[in-house]
Structure formats: structure tokens, C-alpha cells
TrEMBL record:
Membrane topology: Multi-pass membrane protein
This protein's name: NPC intracellular cholesterol transporter 1
Keyword Signal belongs to the record: yes
UniProt record, GO biological process: cholesterol metabolic process; cholesterol transport
Entry's family note: Belongs to the patched family.
One Pfam family hit: Sterol-sensing
Record's signal peptide: 1-22
Protein localization: Endomembrane system
Amino acid sequence: MRARGPALGLLLLLFWPAQVFSQSCVWYGECGIASGDKRYNCKYSGPPKPLPKDGYDLVQELCPGFFFDNVSLCCDAQQLRTLKDNLQLPLQFLSRCPSCFYNLLNLFCELTCSPQQSQFLNITATEDYVDPVTNQTRTNVKELQYYVGQSFANAMYNACRDVEAPSSNDKALGLLCGKDAAACNATNWIEYMFNKDNGQAPFTITPIFSDLPVHGMEPMNNATKGCDESVDEATGPCSCQDCSATCGPKPQPPPPPTPWRLFGLDAMYIIMWITYMAFLLVFFGAFFAVWCYRKRYFVSEYTPIDSNIAFSVNASDKGEASCCDPLGAAFEGCLRRLFMQWGSFCVRNPGCVIFFSVVFITACSSGLVFVQVTTNPVDLWSAPGSQARLEKEYFDQHFGPFFRTEQLIVRAPLTKKHTYEPYPSGADVPFGPPLDIDILHQVLDLQTAIENITASYNNETVTLQDICLAPLSPYNKNCTILSVLNYFQNSHSVLDHKIGDDFFVYADYHTHFLYCVRAPASLNDTSLLHDPCLGTFGGPVFPWLVLGGYDDQNYNNATALVITFPVSNYYNDSEKLQRAQAWEKEFINFVKNYKNPNLTISFSAERSIEDELNRESNSDIFTVVISYGIMFLYISLALGHIKSCRRLLVDSKVSLGIAGILIVLSSVTCSLGIFSYVGIPLTLIVIEVIPFLVLAVGVDNIFILVQTYQRDERLQGETLDQQLGRVLGEVAPSMFLSSFSETVAFFLGALSTMPAVHTFSLFAGLAVFIDFLLQITCFVSLLGLDIKRQEKNRLDILCCIRGAEDGTSVQASESYLFRFFKNSYSPLLLKEWMRPIVVAVFVGVLSFSIAVLNKVEIGLDQYLSMPDDSYVVDYFKSISQYLHAGPPVYFVLEEGHDYTSPKGQNMVCGGMGCNNDSLVQQIFNAAQLDNYTRIGFAPSSWIDDYFDWVKPLSTCCRVYNTTDQFCNASVVDPACVRCRPLTPEGKQRPQGGDFMRFLPMFLSDNPNPKCGKGVFYVFYEQYLTIIDDTIFNLGVSLGAVFLVALVLLGCELWSAVIMCATIAMILVNMFGVMWLWGISLNAVSLVNLVMSCGISVEFCSHITRAFTVSTKGSRVARAEEALAHMGSSVFSGITLTKFGGIVVLAFAKSQIFQIFYFRMYLAMVLLGATHGLVFLPVLLSYIGPSINKAKSCATEDRYKGTERERLLNF
């Protein structure tokens, strides 16, 4: 019988293993203290025990699967309370996906309380413990093996891997796995949760993963729920944001536009090349056909081929006047008589005219005392009524303006990389130069010194603490400092913290850094250091915000450190704003003067750009003064017509030139003053560009007026006032044509919604018009006085001194430049063989410009707006080189949305039950296409955090049961109870009154280890519309020029068309130059393009009008006369004047001056001159309008019987 007993026992063991293991525990209750407030469990080998009644609520809440029969478990109520506390952190981040959290609860409930513990738990280390109360000796469980089914682990991980942590722009597992979410998997996640070094587990639990029995143990392999499955009837599957399995196909970005290509080459190049070749074929075919026809029938072989032959295709202006000719002649005559009478009046009454001109100038310019200057880039480039501005205004009003940013980018160029060798095992890890321990200490000293900067404002001391962003204040008043040193609590001692012995270092700052960049919100790293990663301000420090120059996500390879001090900004509170600006000024001065040979620092403050824009304007004043000085000197000397050295001081017109320049500048100050009266602020572009523009227009008119007089002979019996009146009658219509065209064009350009273009157009239009008025009044009077001085042989400037008599008098004469244009340049340009070459070249250039029109880049690199020597230039370059993340993007739902209803909530939120096209879900989808949308990370959503915060399972939302006041999760008080009951209704989202009742509590709560769900949530539009703005402004300007030219040219439709076509060619060619010279299209270049339209009018209108009023017999002769008479004045008045001033701009310190002013001004002058003085006369000689017979007859009648009749044929 003795021999059969053990055999029977073995048989029972073999046949009834389930009964033996199914009801057996390995522990029960809590014993000794493990660390802090964490305790070991007590070893217990026996059947499960009935749970006391006080634990029923807890088991129903945490492990409802165990609530049956007499609830016999391997845990007591205290173990359940400990389990609840330990689950608070994962609960806050994973409960938004119910099936994920269900599986996690399964893992921990089986571990803690399962009646079948002994199947899958194996104790490997214990120690005795003497209970101080009962004095009984008990056994602590110090180490344990947990056999977990690999299938269960994988299923649990798959259900949780997509869950988002809305407040941290990261996956929840990135906060719960001890490493980056991308590196987390089923096994290392569970290993981390059971590792006592994570700061949560009281003792070491070693998970062993297998689906098959191992060492007589049956792994825990409970059924799981997929994230696309519902846990119960009250909950649904996880949202698309938290479970990719519930989503449709992953959104795909639209394919990039296919390049338009023909024969493998750019289509625009091919099309314009074919078009140009076709034009040349047709043009030269027609030219040679006409040439052969004329040679065969009308020209002998000894007669030279020229345009002035008796029968020429150019000599077709014969016949009777058309119906519009009398109207045009009448209008021309009316203008001539009006200006003639007005000119005579001004010469006869110079004192009166000059006095009232000065009074007018003084009255208008006095408005400058009210001047306002706009330097804010937002006000310059973004229209007040634009969508972006309205949205920013809305945001600022409701949430306050975005924080002011003070930022440093620190590099260590003299320090080499080093390699960290983990002990006892692990691959070597390279660390970039700025992550050297000595460099980090030096950077921490710098950071601390910046924190201690003080400024003075209104005799008050301003510190960083007074103005910084402290999101958890008043509970935590630490300033937000986004710095890698916040991983070390901004402390030298924490940075030096290491664990090791005399031979090896087991953990140091390398270990902590590698952990924190993977889990920046962690309160305790998993190394032996156990140091927190969370910043001292209570928020996470994301590595992509504080490190730069790394590859992929290898943050340890960083070559730069980024330190950012967010400073509070203020809406309509100038006092507080100026306090912040005062501190920023001291910050800039400090960093500028900071010396450390080991560190290279690029930095910027919120006020830096505005400061540097102001300094730029001041630094380039000298360059601009030299530029205008050269132009003034040239004008003063070029106006005079010196016949001999003895009459140098008599015939010079320096005083007249200076007076003319002062009139031009007075028109600018009048324009600025008038608009300052109205309250329209100035911009830097207005100050820098308009004087240049008005000088071009004004000086051109001065040269035309003066040089026309110098070439004119006083008729017999004609007085000075009559002569100047007649001269003004001849040229003033041309001056009026150009000035009024530009004025109307600029005023219509003010319809632009872009503030910089709108303001420029207003000021420019008024300045050009006032300049014209002053020139036909004040300048004409001054010209009359200067001629009287010259006729009396008085010296220029020193008009009281009479010069030596040399027997000569003031006579009509032609300048060398006029004779060159008349005798050499005009005949050469209009030769029969030269004209086709000109047409071919200019059409070729036009074709090229059209081909590259769509290739001009749009935008304005920030650094171009800064002076060459600005510290901000280096900062912008460092941003481009090192930074990996841009500014935050806010999506604001305007007031009126109903958050209290399920429908309203589902339209916004991103968690369980939310619409798949909700706001948060759409932004989440966009973040998945970051290379296309540029949204780098998933959205932070307060409403999803609120729903997690208010759940009854969470310890976040609690109230005092006596006062119903909010009770923070960190408060330990039995009177604090959960906000909502643990019922199916209580587990639902709050609606109606409940939503609004608990929301203030959520908004006032701060994150803490017990509840990480509190609130610590911490823009140029011009490029969206620049193409439309460019088309609109240039189109309106051209249309205005056409209409004015049509009227003022006396209804000469074809003349207006030709003039505007030439101006359009100049504008198109400007785009070609922009492409060749690397000038991008933005608000600055658009202003210059609008201005080039105005200056092009100067180059083209005078030549066109001179052609229309010419009485020569052929188009070639009329073009030659127009070019000879007006070409020299245009060339000397605009081209030479501007060229001297423009060249100086190349030496400006400001890059924006060098690129957008020097290059574009030079291009517009050269293109304007070549088109106005080369192409336009040739075009007019081919297709210019026929002679206006009525005007020709009127001219002949007007000068019949006078010496002037002879001059008509010069």
C-alpha cells in the first residue's frame, strides 16, 4: 500500500493539474516597504480568499471579470487600491481607446488578483519581513517571473500602438514605453512597465513571453479586444486617430503637377522658340518682299535704298483728314493755348506764383508733424481685411497674441564629437560636439545668466520672471525654458549626476539624455539615475525643439543646441508690452557682448527684426544721400548750356537745377504731409522708393522744358513771357500726358489690398501730380527769372554780381547731345537695314522673358531684409541649417459652436465615437502627409484631453463631497470623491450642464504625477495672393495709362495701343531680368514693378506724342524727328540722371537695397531707355499712326509767315 500511494498521487497530479493550479495564489496582501510609498506583496501559497466587501467597488471598477460568486481572489482591497493608483498614468493616455485599456487591465488584473496566479507567476526571490504591528514574520516577494502569452502581448500592443496623446503631439506609447514610440514593441513595452527602475513598479517583475507551456508554467493568454472592436455595449471601437484599423485608406497627397514638356524640354521654351522663329520668318519674308518690289519697280540700281525716296511704303500719309482728326487737333490746340496763357502768366508774375507755391508747400508739408511710420511686417504685407489678418485678430482678442520668442542657437565649433560606451553592454553611441559635458555646463551658465538679466522701465526693474511664460503659475512659477538642459532640471548637480564605482560608470548624463529624447514627458527615467525628464516649468521638452543639425531622429548627433525663452505677449496693453521690450533690449545687448571662445551663438529676440529694419534705414541713409547727391550734381550741371569758358558762371544753371530738385522733393513732402493729415501711416518702402520715382518723373520734365527753350528762337516782336508761354504750350501737353497717366495709374493701383502696394500707390500718385503742378507754376516762374538773370549777364547763384561782357547774347543753340541724336543716332537707328535687326533683337528678348515668366520664384528670404552686418542674418542662416521644426499652427473654432451636445463634440474631437471627418481627425490626417502639408506632428486637442480627464476611472476629476469644490489629484483626502459615478451613464462623455460644470475645473488643473491631463497648452499671407496682386496692379496700371493716353493724345487710338504695348514689353522683360538675376516676386518687387510701369511712361509717352504731332511726310521721318527732339531730353533727363544714382546703391549695406533696389532700378532704367529710345521709334516707323492732317494744317497756319515756319523742317 505504501508503494501505491505515491503512484496514485502522481496519477492525480497528471489527471487533475487544472484543479491543482487553477485555485492557487502566490501572494496575498502587502508587506514591507520597497521604496518610498511602494510596498512588497506578501508571499502566500494557498487558495484564493473571499474579497472583503469594501473592495467590491474597486474590483467592479478595475477587474469586473472577477466579480462573481463570493469574489475569491489572490488580492485584498489594499492591493486593488495600489493597482488603481499605479494605473492612473496609463489610464489617462490609453483609456481614449477602450479596447486598448481593456487589454492592459487584463494584464494587470491577472497579475494582481487572478485566482489562477500560480499557473503563470513564479517567485524567484523573497526576504523575511517582521510586521511592526503584529510582530509576525512574513515574507516579501522581491522578484517574480510573469509568463505572458506572446499572442496576448502582441494583441495588446497592436490595440494600443496608434493611440495618441493629444496634449503632447506624440503617441501615448512614447510616454509609457520608456523610449520613442517608433522603437516600442510588445515585449519592451511590457518589460518597461514591470521594471522597478521606471519609478512605478515596486519590485522587479520579469516577463517571459511564450504561447506554449514553459518549465511547467502555463502563460497567461486571455482573450483580447482589437482596437476596432467594442468592449461592451456602452463603448464603441477606438477612433481612426487611435486605431488605424478603423480608418479607411491612408490619405495620399495629390500628385505633384506634371512638368509641361514638349520633346523632353520645357514647353514654354519650345513654344516661344517656335513662335519667335515663325515671327522672324514672316517678318523678314515680308521685309525682303517689299525690298525686292521697291527695287524692281521704283529704284534704279544706282539709287541707294533708303526710306526717304519719292515712293516709299513709309510715305503713305496722304489724303484727307479722318473724322477723329479735327477732334484731336481741337483738343491739342485747346491744351496748347491753355498752357501757353498759363506759362505767360507765371513768367509775368513770378513773385505771386512763387509765394503761393511756397505757402501751398508749407501748408501741405506741415502735416508731417502728424506722421506715423509702420515697420511691423504684418502691417506692411497683410491687408487688414484679409482672411489671415482677421483670423490673427480673432485669435489675439480671444486667446491673447502668440508668445514673444527669444531664441539662441548654440554651436561648439572647437569641440569634437565623442563616443559614449554604455556599461555593461550596448552599442557605442556617438554624441555631437555641443553635447559634451563641459560644453553643456558652459551653456547652462549662459542660460542662467540670461535668466538673471534685469532691465529698467519707468524706474522699475524688469526680470525674466516678470514677463516669462509660466503655464502652471501660481502652483509652479518656473519660467518655460525650452532647452536640452531642462532634461537636467537646469541644474549643474543633476547634469553631473552619475552612478558607478571606482572602475565603471553605469549611468550618467548620456544615459539620461538618451532616455529623455525618447520620453520627454517622463517623470522618472529607467536608468539607475531615476531623474525626471519633465521640464522645471511642468511641461515636456520635445527634442526637435531644443536640438538641431541631427539626422533622422538620431538626436545624439546634434550639432547645435536651441534655447528658447517664450515671453508673454499682450493685446492692446502697451505698458506691459514695453516692459517686455525693455527686457529684450537688455537680452540683445547681453548676448551681443557675451564672449566664450568655445561657443558660437546665433540669436534673435522678438523685437530684433523691427530693430534691424530701423537700423537698416539709418545705416543706408549715407548711401542714399550720396546717390541723390550725384543725381543733384548732374542735374545742376547738365541743365546749363555753356558756350564758352568766359560765360561759364553766367550760362550755368546750378541754382535753377537746385530749385528744380527742391520742387521735386517738395512734392514728395506735400504728399507725405497730406496723407499724414488724414492719418495714413508711412512705410519704409514709401520713404525709400517715392523720392526716386518722383525725381525720375520730375527731372525728365525739367530737362524737356529747359532744353526745348534752349533750342528755341524768340520770334520777332515776341517777349520773354510770350516765348516761355509758347514753349510751355508745346511741351506741357507731353508733360501732362506722362504725369497724369502715372497719377491715374498709381491711384488705381491703390485699389490693391496689399498694404505696402496700396500705401505706395497713394503717396506716389499724389506726389507725381503735385510735382507736375509745381513744375508748370513755380518752376516756370523760376525759369523766367533765371533767363532774365542770364540775359542781364549776372552770375549763377551770385546773381547780384554781373559777369564780364563778351559781346554775346543769349541765343538759341543745340546741345552736343541733341546734335548727336539729330545727326548721328536717329539716322543710324532708322536705316533700312538697322530697323529689322532692332525688331528681331527686341522680339527675341521678349520671347525669352515670356518663356521664363512662370519661373520667377515667389517669396522673400527673411535674411534679405536685414543689413549685411546684422546678427539676425546669421540667425536666419542658422535656422535654415539647423532647425527641424517651425512655428506652431493653431486651428481656432469660432464662438457659437455647441460643445455640449454629442453632435457638436463629434464634429471636433478625435477620440472614440468622434466623426472620421472631425476637425481633429482631418488635422491628424494632414499631419500624416507632413512632406505635403508641412504639419509636422499630430494635433494637440484640449477637448480629447478633457474627456480623458473627466472619466470616472481617472483620479483627475474629483470634488470635495461636502463643498462640491474641485479637488486636485495630488490632494490626499477621503472627502475627495470622483466627479462622475462609475455607471454606464457616468462613463459617457459629459453633456449639457455637466460639460460646462466640469470644464472650469479642467482648465484650472495643472499636470502632476497623479494626473497628467491638466492644461499647459502653451503667421506671411502675401505669398498666397502675390500672383493675383501682380496681375491686378500691372493690369490696372496699363489700363489707366491707355485710357489717359487715348484722351490726351487727341483720340489717337493706335498711338495709345503702341505706347502701352511697349510699356507691357518692358514689364515682361523685367520678369526676365528678375529670373536671370535671382530676384523673387514679393511685395517689394511688386512695388518696384508698379513703379517701373510709371517710369516706362516717361520713356515712351514723350516720344509717342512727339511722333503724333510731327508734320513730316513719312513715318520714318516723323520717328526720326521725335527721337531727335525728345530723345536727348529723355536720355539726359532720366537715363543719365538715374544711372549715376543707381550705381551707388550697389554699395548699400542692406541686401534688400542691393537686390530689390539696385538691380531692379538698374533693370527698369536700362529696359526703359532701350525700349523708349531704340525699339519704340523703330516700331513707330513701321506701324505708327498716319499723320493727323488737321494737326498738320493747324501747325502750318500757326507759324505761317514767321521764322518758325522754316524751323518746322529743321
